[in-house]
Design brief:
Helices cover 44% and strands 12% of the residues. It has a six-stranded parallel beta sheet, sandwiched between helices. The chain is globular and about 50 Å long. This is Pyrimidine 5'-nucleotidase. InterPro entries: HAD-like_sf, HAD-SF_hydro_IA, HAD_2, HAD_sf, Pyr-5-nucltdase.
């Protein structure tokens, strides 16, 4: 029986919260402000509203303002700048190298960004595929649609897969459809849909199988 490891990217394989997310957040607000000709404060409020209603800024912009998703993702994820914040880790490479089974990345980030970050981490050799927001027709995790679309493409059953994530909502969906789940978090959150918790990705090993 095959074994598939499905990894989230940001805040799972690398630290995005400290510098990358603030930069992207600022870029998204600036884009909305310029595109809709509104103030930064108004853009921030609109993004917050769209996040609550649609689960993502992009979904709201597409639905209500006919924004081109490719343009939005390209302009808000400047890989030349963002790649500067990535720190390589020998321990991460070693962890992935030792982990048996097929490994893929499944992220809500755009493909050009995901590939750039993975290359900056120098871990591209360990992954057989990268599934991005484009792969799910701009339907982000934790939507069931996104997970099912990736599984159909992989041609695998959920029970053959282990989802490694920092986001509880995404793990809840993964568990709901039958995947095993690993939470990467320093917070001790006990839930029925988390099979194992590790404080950082380099603690992942064969005991999670």
């Amino acid at each position: 029986m095959s074994k598939i490891w499905i990894f989230d990217l940001d805040d799972t394989l690398h630290d995005a919260s400290s510098k990358i997310f603030p930069y992207i957040n600022q870029s998204m607000t600036a884009y909305v402000s310029q595109k809709l000709n509104i103030s930064n404060d108004a853009a921030h409020e609109l993004r917050d509203q769209y996040w609550k209603v649609y689960g993502a800024t992009l979904k709201g912009l597409m639905k209500n303002h006919d924004v081109d998703p490719k343009e939005f993702l390209l302009k808000t994820h400047d890989v030349h700048e963002l790649s500067k914040f990535v720190k390589q880790s020998h321990a991460l490479k070693n962890t992935l190298k030792k982990l048996k089974g097929k490994k893929i990345v499944f992220t809500n980030a755009p493909l050009h960004y995901a590939i750039a970050i993975i290359k900056s981490l120098k871990i591209e050799r360990y992954f057989s595929a990268v599934y991005s927001i484009e792969s799910t027709k701009y339907n982000p995790k934790p939507s069931l649609y996104a997970f099912r679309k990736i599984l159909r493409h992989l041609g695998e059953k959920p029970h053959q897969c282990t989802m490694v994530e920092d986001d509880l909502a995404n793990l809840k969906t993964a568990h709901k459809i039958g995947m095993k789940t690993v939470l990467v978090s320093r917070q001790n959150k006990k839930t029925v849909f988390v099979n194992k918790r590790i404080t950082k990705i380099t603690h992942l090993n064969q005991q999670t199988r």
